[in-house]
Amino acid sequence: MDDDQLIAKLQHRFDPAAAGDLNATYQFLLHDADDHHLVIEGGSLSIHAGHHTAPDVTIESDTATLIALIKKELNAMQALLGGRVKVKGDIGLAARLPKLFGKRND
Q1: 106 pLDDT exceeds 70?
Q2: Among 2, 34, 61, 86, whose CB has the most other CB atoms within 10 angstroms?
């Protein structure tokens, strides 16, 4: 999956109702794609290329693992313990990913 496909998938699956009043910045360091950060603010999502200077949480993984987590095909704890995902910062924000991006099943 290329960067454009990943971004489109995230935008497609984003659930503004699940975001509620959340204001957070997620930094993604993906081994097989360019780095991006997501800003969730006021129920809206914006996706930016590159690094954010002060993300609330940084998630390091590969694209397939990230998508599997979002689609609830992979248990987050298993991914963490198995070394498929590394999280720095607010782990609670990382745990919210499946709900934030669970709007549509695809």
Answers
A1: no
A2: 61
Whether 16 has a pLDDT exceeding 80, the answer reads yes
DSSP letter for each residue of 52-106: -SS-SEEEEE-HHHHHHHHTTSS-HHHHHHTTS-EEEE-HHHHHTHHHHT-SS--
Task: Spell out the domain ranges in the chain.
Answer: 3-100
Whether CATH 3.40.50.300 fits 3-100 = no
- Asked whether the predicted pLDDT for residue 44 surpasses 60, the reply is yes
CA dihedral of residues 75, 79, 81, 85 (deg, nearest 10):
-140
